[in-house]
Design brief:
Keywords: Lyase, Magnesium, Metal-binding
Protein name: Malyl-CoA lyase
Number of helices: 5
Distance between the termini: 29 Å
EC number: 4.1.3.24
Shape: elongated
Number of strands: 4
Mean pLDDT: 95
Radius of gyration: 16 Å
Oligomer: single chain
Domain HpcH/HpaI aldolase/citrate lyase: 2-52
Largest sheet: 2 strands, parallel
Structural class: mainly alpha
Strand order of the largest sheet: 1-2
Helix content: 55-70%
Low-confidence stretches: none
Number of domains: 2
GO molecular function: lyase activity; magnesium ion binding
Order of helices and strands: HEHEHHEEH
Amino acid sequence: AHALQMVVLAARAAGVAAFDGVYNRLEDDDGLARQCEEGRSYGFDGKSLIHPSQIATANRIFGPGEQEVEEAKRLIAAAGGGAERYEGRMIEAMHVEQAKAVLAKARR
């Protein structure tokens, strides 16, 4: 786990996307899903795939869900610039940029 998180940190520092390694068992979609969920929890942006049958699972898990997209839209609409209170927490420009990234990812 530590080595994987170091990959994510290095990618963030370099300003590039971090992709988790491949899952070799083509017939095990549940295993792929578990690995994708673990990778997303570590901060990976996506997963390297070795077969087209893996695309839908990876996209479903690494792509933003409806709730995440709606939250991003609300945050952007509420932001007025600078640090401010939003739904019980403080937000600033960094959070707006993260929300915009969620919307951009959802459009892909």
